[in-house]
DNA sequence: TAGATTGTTAATCGATTAACAATC
DNA sequence: TAGATTGTTAATCGATTAACAATC
């Protein structure tokens, strides 16, 4: 009965979920597929198609009820319950991400930070509890941490990931350029790499300018 | 003559480009499509197909020459020349990204930082030259800055982007959850949103556990 | 009722996987 | 020569776009 939802659709619906939160805060009660599409940068068609894959969402002919739709997406995708997360590697980037603070507002509680440098653990002041890296499996298990943000140096990425897996982590946001290897099919990893994104932009710019010359 | 290269292919090739750099540093001379695929997390098939879209890359039957392939990809995608970049919003995240420092090693020179808080501009110490936000168009133009990293509060994203566009920026890495609107077809934007990635992970976890229950 | 809007099927488009000849 | 490897065509698979009936 559960249709498989395409990955791009999941990404877009998560985006819609966030936009619905903003609209709710602004006191907006209803929204059309056009408005939602506009906000996330896709067509109205696409929004309706995506939402329909989730099962009954709106009512035929009537606009979407903002708060109702948000709750519904949250239920279907498991976004409503608060989840525990940790951060591995509390260097500059790690600290900045902790303090960024949007997590608490969006259903994530950062309950632990890990680092292999004892010196750093002692000198850093943050509201998050800090532990040495070797305690990752133990703490992840005991605290029931589901998600991890990985901001260690590239060379330590695999080791850190192994420890997280040992603790039973379910998802990792990997800020290192290293692709993590693992043999578990119930672990999910997303990769964020600023340098690669810069390269992609450079490539798009370069290819488009070549295409431009071509057509002259 | 120029075939249009699919977006996913561009992303993967940029990833390969980076891996080739690592291999080169490690003194590796040749590599197979299998090795490259392994490193970036895709099949050997996929690597060969992607590279073939770039035109002649390897030699039929022989392994890829690491340094030759890297230079070749760099030429085709415009990644070899150093590009100037700037950072808009030098709060915690912005500073962390500047200091992250992988940019210089990968062909990007960050030549300017902008912020609307005069106080912050005066107190922050960094190796990057800082300017008030209203000078964005002027400096981007005079310095010939091509790429921008956007780390301002979500509410200021559109205004900052407008100023960048006015200066003639060609690409933006947008760290805010706000989708930027613009009417230029020679501007490219990539979005990075940690919270959304956390949501996507949560959704994948939730859907997979449901699918698991289903099949029991 | 008329105009606007959703949900869903059908049609198009694009990307990935498989297979294999050509080459080292 | 034999085994390994690339480049590219063909086949499959998946995603997006378009269209339209159903409904408010």
Brief summary:
The first copy, chain A, has 216 residues and is of the alpha/beta class. The first copy, chain A, is built from ten helices and eight strands.
Descriptive key words:
homodimer; alpha/beta; six-stranded parallel beta sheet; 10 helices; 50% helix; globular; DNA-binding
Topology:
The structure is a homodimer of 216-residue chains.
Chain A: H1 7-25, E1 30-31, H2 33-40, H3 44-52, E2 64-65, H4 66-77, E3 83-88, H5 92-100, H6 102-105, E4 108-115, H7 118-123, E5 130-132, H8 136-143, E6 147-150, H9 157-167, E7 171-174, E8 188-191, H10 194-214
Parallel strand pairs in A: 3-4, 3-6, 4-5, 6-7, 7-8
Antiparallel strand pairs in A: 1-2
Helix pairs in contact in A: 1-2, 1-4, 2-3, 8-9
The structure holds a DNA duplex (24 and 24 nucleotides).
How would you describe this protein?
The structure is a homodimer of 216-residue chains. Chain A has 10 helices and 8 strands. Chain A is an alpha/beta fold and 216 residues long. In chain A, the strands form 2 sheets. The first copy, chain A, has a 6-stranded parallel beta sheet. Chain A has a two-stranded antiparallel sheet with strand order 1-2. In chain A, helix 1 packs antiparallel against helix 4. Chains A and B meet through helix 1, helix 5, strand 7 and helix 10 of A and helix 1, helix 5, strand 7 and helix 10 of B. The structure holds a DNA duplex (24 and 24 nucleotides).
